[in-house]
Amino acid sequence: MSLRNPYGDFEITDPQAMRALAHPVRLAALSWLQKNGPATATQLSEHVGASPSVTSWHLRHLASFGLVVDGPPPEGSDRRQRWWNAVARGFRVTMPDTPEGVEAGRLLLAEMMSQALEQAQHWLAEIEPGLDPEWRRVAGSANTRLIVTVDEADAIEQEIEQVLAPYVQRGEEGAPPDARSVRHLRMSLPEATA
């Protein structure tokens, strides 16, 4: 694992792949597979807001960019069905320098932010009220303004990833019995100069 990608995320650099993933159904399907593991298009359809046939089409499109693969069904499952898997637990985007690439990257970033905000609103309305007090206490949010250089901002991002990497890499199988899934959303938004 590289220091620039300590989680083993799928790295997206191709503007066409960014455009493909910027579709709400595709991004939702990939996110669901990354969180929950293998599923059929029919199973995914209820989570992504599309019919099974439309979901299947979107999965094949993601597969053409290497983001998902169809593979063997889980033990005890119907072998006649097509099962889909995410190729990695996460993905990261390297913004291209070309005008086409910048536009594609911005489309994907907009959809990622939209879905992240939906997740946060769902959490606040549906999950947070039922949390035990100790989990409610550690659920945090912050809005901190930093004055940093580009190199310092990059170093901060790398250090945060190094802190989180052991928890990401161990997965569910390596976690203590009392561990639970925690979604860590973070955005670093450089502001305009004065």
Q: What's the layout of helices and strands?
A:
Blueprint: E1 10-12, H1 15-21, H2 24-36, H3 41-48, H4 52-64, E2 68-71, E3 83-86, E4 91-93, H5 99-127, H6 133-138, H7 150-170
Parallel strand pairs: 1-4
Antiparallel strand pairs: 2-3
Task: Tell me about this structure.
With 194 residues, this protein is mainly alpha-helical. It has a domain at 10-133: Orthogonal Bundle (Arc Repressor Mutant, subunit A). It is built from seven helices and four strands. It has helices at residues 15-21, 24-36, 41-48, 52-64, 99-127, 133-138, 150-170; strands at 10-12, 68-71, 83-86, 91-93. A two-stranded parallel sheet has the order 1-4. Helix 2 (24-36) packs across helix 3. It is globular. The termini are far apart. The model has no long low-confidence stretch (mean pLDDT 90).
Pick out the low-confidence regions: none
Alpha-carbon Rg, integer: 18 Å
CATH fourth-tier homologous superfamily of the domain at 10-133: Winged helix-like DNA-binding domain superfamily/Winged helix DNA-binding domain
Q: Count the DSSP helices.
A: 7
Helix content: 40-55%
CATH class of the domain at 10-133: Mainly Alpha
CATH topology of the domain at 10-133: Arc Repressor Mutant, subunit A
* Span of the ends, CA to CA: 39 Å
Structural class: mainly alpha
The major β-sheet equals: 2 strands, parallel
What's the number of extended β-strand segments? 4
Q: What portion of the residues fall into strands of 2 or more residues?
A: 5-15%
Strand order of the largest sheet: 1-4
**Mean of the pLDDT scores?**
90
Q: Helices and strands, in N-to-C order?
A: EHHHHEEEHHH
Gross geometry: globular
Q: State the CATH architecture of the domain at 10-133.
A: Orthogonal Bundle
